[in-house]
């Protein structure tokens, strides 16, 4: 799933799509649509990021349920972007399930969804028990669930085995900008997965996104890191480059870490 291949067969970016629920995407940067100052900035940042998948918080964003109000689909049309309805702001399984059903109705049967059930308003950590409950119902109803969870490798595998099409562990608390706090857990999740692992939450700057990709993540989803930056459109551009560079570095294969120096130009085989 992470395109780890033989050293003799390098992968080029154009031959390395992100595949989610059978769909192919060129960009591995997924972006949110909240927290921008207006729809024009949302559009400009999304374009600068090169994102193809954009999350939509159904409980907070108008995509047609409020006639006459500014509509996100006017600047991010479905003909160009894959919408990922998000259950952001839901604190129970029942709320999340209702929100997904509403999104499917508003979007003419759209099945791909991001499941997020929060445990409390202070930390915004996921409620894993409620997440498992909601995922089971939604998968049974035919939803293609991309699921936000903590960085527990055991829970990540359970969600995959249930039928989630992507697992999205947090790097750090939502909106914290702390970067990847536990790379070893993220790496363990990736090594055991047969579905895309996409880091979600906690990215603060471009180097965080590059590190996630260098670990072998299939992609990175972010909102606050871009929308909350001093110059969101410029940050979106930086994140695009970081995700691409991190993916290429992962595929290229880094040198081993060593305690001591290793000369770039060794003396072995010289003529003097």
Provide a short characterization of the protein structure:
This protein is of the alpha/beta class.
Produce the secondary structure layout.
Blueprint: E1 18-20, E2 23-25, E3 29-31, H1 39-49, E4 53-57, E5 82-86, H2 93-106, E6 112-115, H3 128-140, E7 144-149, H4 153-162, E8 166-169, H5 183-191, E9 198-200, H6 206-215, E10 219-222, H7 224-227, H8 232-252
Parallel strand pairs: 3-10, 4-5, 6-7, 7-8, 9-10
Antiparallel strand pairs: 1-2
Helix pairs in contact: 1-8, 2-3, 4-5, 6-8
Low-confidence stretches at least 5 residues in length (pLDDT < 50)? none
Radius of gyration: 20 Å
Report the count of strand segments. Answer: 10
Order of helices and strands: EEEHEEHEHEHEHEHEHH
Sheet with most strands: 3 strands, parallel
The strands making up the biggest β-sheet line up spatially as 3-10-9
Structure annotation, total helices: 8
**Share of helical residues:** 25-40%
Oligomeric status of the shown chains? single chain
Mean pLDDT: 92
The SS-based structural class is alpha/beta
How far apart lie the N and C ends?
49 Å
**Beta-strand content estimate:** 5-15%
Silhouette: globular
How would you describe this structure to a colleague?
The protein has 272 residues and is an alpha/beta fold. 34% of the residues lie in helices and 15% in strands. It is built from eight helices and ten strands. α1 (39-49) packs parallel to α8 (232-252), α4 (153-162) runs parallel beside α5 and α6 (206-215) runs parallel beside α8 (232-252). The longest helix is centred in the last third of the chain and has 21 residues, at 232-252. It starts with 17 loop residues before the first strand and ends in a 20-residue tail after the last helix. The mean pLDDT is 92.
